[in-house]
């Protein structure tokens, strides 16, 4: 079994969705999460606040610098994620398809480093 991150890529420059659409999307993603739990694939799920709520801590010359805002200035940011545990990439991609359909956003699928691949 391997763990994968299913990362929701959210376009923060797009106008906000109407509240009723947000509620419907949350209901759809909740159903997918429930399916993951029933299948034994679910590990964790989390939604994130807008990137302007973030703080970045960077190492610099033996010290750290703390700045407000996202790590990278880009219109697409990480909006939320699922952590799943499945047999292989094909199963992870099948869950990612369901997640993308449920939330209406692109999903980046990335395996966790199990220590077998070193740089």
Automatic annotation (TrEMBL):
Signal peptide span: none
Ranges for domain YCII-related: 7-101
Top-level taxon of origin: Bacteria
InterPro entries assigned: Dimeric_a/b-barrel, YCII
PANTHER family given in the database record: BLL7171 PROTEIN, BLL7171 PROTEIN-RELATED
Family per record: Belongs to the YciI family.
Name recorded for this polypeptide: YCII-related domain-containing protein
Organism: Amycolatopsis regifaucium
